[in-house]
Design goal:
The protein is an alpha+beta fold. It has helices at residues 18-31, 44-72, 109-137, 143-149, 220-225, 264-269, 282-292, 298-308, and strands at 7-9, 34-38, 89-96, 155-163, 175-178, 184-189, 196-200, 203-206, 214-218, 235-237, 245-253, 259-260, 280-281. Helix 1 (18-31) packs across helix 3 and helix 2 crosses helix 3 (109-137).
C-alpha cells in the first residue's frame, strides 16, 4: 500500500472543514510524528527572502570552508562507510531566552533582520500548533506552552544547514538517523533538492519537498508529556550527488529548568495505566542526549527514569 505523507492545509481550521484538519493532525501525531503544513500564515515573500539570503550566505561564507574540511579529511575519495560524520554545513542561531544572532560571524545586517522576523513568525506558529495538540489531546489550552515555560520561558533556536553535492552518498549521510530531543520542530526546507526521510513501519519514507511549506515534527519531550501517545520519529538526510539542499530547522523546546513529565490529565483519561515515561529536568535530558544523539531514544528515557529516584524535583512552577 502506498503511504501518503500527511499534508495539512492550516487555513481549513477557520471553516467547516476544521474537524477533518484536526483529525489529520491527530493521525499524523499518532502515526507519523511528522506532517507538512500549507497555508500556515507565514508570508511567502518572507520565506523567499530567507531562502535567497541563506543561499547567498552559504556561497559567500560557508562553501569554501566546507570544501576545505572535505579535503582535509580526504572525503572525496571515500572507499568505506563513514558513521561518525555528517555531510552538512551548519550554523546555529538562538532566539530565546536571549538571542545570540549578533554574535554569529559574517552575518549581514539584512540577513539578521530577516531571520529575526522569520523567528517571530515561527514562534507564533509553534505556539499555535502546541495549542492544537492540546485540543486534540483533551488538555487545557496553553498546557504544553506552560510545561515548556520553566522560569525563563522556552528555548527557541534555528539550525541553518546546507547539504552540498556529495560524491559518495551511499557511504556518508547528510545527517545520520536520530530523533529530535526537544519539543516541536518547524522546518523550512529546499523545495527542489530532496533528501529528508523518516522511518515508518521499518521503511524509510521521503518527506516531499513542497514550495512554501513548513514541515513539522515532534521531539522526545512531546512523547514523554503524552506518555507515548505521540511519538518522536527517527529521521535522516540522504546526501545527493547534485544540488545543494537548504534546511532551516527551528526548535521550540522547553526552558532549561522546565520539568517534563507525562500530563496527569492524560494519565487519568487513559484509565489506570501506570506512568510509562520518566519525570526530569529538560537540561538533564539534553546533557544525556548530547552524547547519544544517534542512538535509540528508549535507553535515554530509561536513564532518566533511574535518575528520577535520586532527584527531588520540588514543586512544579506554574507560570
Amino acid at each position: 500500500m502506498e503511504l501518503t505523507f500527511p499534508v495539512i492545509d492550516l487555513s481549513k481550521l477557520n471553516g467547516e472543514e476544521r474537524g477533518t484538519a484536526m483529525e489529520m493532525i491527530k493521525d499524523a501525531c499518532e502515526n507519523w510524528g511528522f506532517f507538512e503544513l500549507m497555508n500556515h500564515g507565514i508570508s511567502h515573500e518572507l520565506m523567499d527572502t530567507v531562502e535567497r539570503l541563506t543561499k547567498e550566505h552559504y556561497k559567500k561564507c560557508m562553501e569554501q570552508r566546507f570544501k576545505e574540511m572535505v579535503a582535509s579529511k580526504g572525503l572525496e575519495a571515500l572507499q568505506s562507510e563513514i558513521n561518525d560524520l555528517d555531510w552538512e554545513s551548519t550554523f546555529f542561531l538562538r532566539h530565546l531566552p536571549e538571542s545570540n544572532i549578533s554574535e554569529i560571524p559574517n552575518l549581514e545586517q539584512d540577513y539578521i533582520k530577516v531571520m529575526k522576523e522569520f523567528a517571530v513568525e515561527l514562534e507564533k506558529l509553534a505556539e499555535q500548533l502546541l495549542d492544537l495538540l492540546c485540543e486534540n489531546l483533551g488538555l487545557e489550552p496553553g498546557y504544553l506552552k506552560k510545561v515548556f515555560y520553566g522560569s525563563k520561558g522556552p528555548t527557541f533556536g534555528t539550525k541553518v544547514s546546507n547539504y552540498p553535492p556529495c560524491p559518495k552518498p551511499d557511504l556518508i549521510k547528510g545527517l545520520r538517523a536520530h530523533t529530535d530531543a526537544g519539543g516541536i520542530i518547524l522546518l523550512f526546507q529546499d523545495d527542489k533538492v530532496s533528501g529528508l526521510q523518516l522511518l515508518k513501519d521499518q521503511q524509510w519514507i521521503d518527506v516531499p519537498p513542497m514550495k512554501h511549506s513548513i514541515v513539522v515534527n515532534l521531539g522526545d519531550q512531546l512523547e514523554v508529556i503524552t506518555n507515548g501517545k505521540y511519538k518522536s520519529v527517527m529521521h535522516r538526510v540522504i546526501a545527493q550527488t547534485d544540488g545543494t539542499r537548504m534546511s532551516i530547522a527551528s526548535f521550540y523546546n522547553p526552558g532549561s529548568d522546565a520539568v517534563i513529565y507525562p500530563a496527569p490529565d492524560l494519565l487519568e483519561k487513559e484509565g489506570d495505566k501506570s506512568q510509562v515515561y520518566p519525570k526530569f529536568v529538560f537540561e538533564d535530558y539534553m546533557k544525556l542526549y548530547a552524547g547519544l544523539k544517534f542512538q535509540a531514544k528508549e535507553p535515554r528515557f530509561e536513564a532518566m527514569k533511574s535518575m528520577e529516584s535520586t532527584v527531588n524535583l520540588g514543586p512544579i512552577a506554574t507560570v
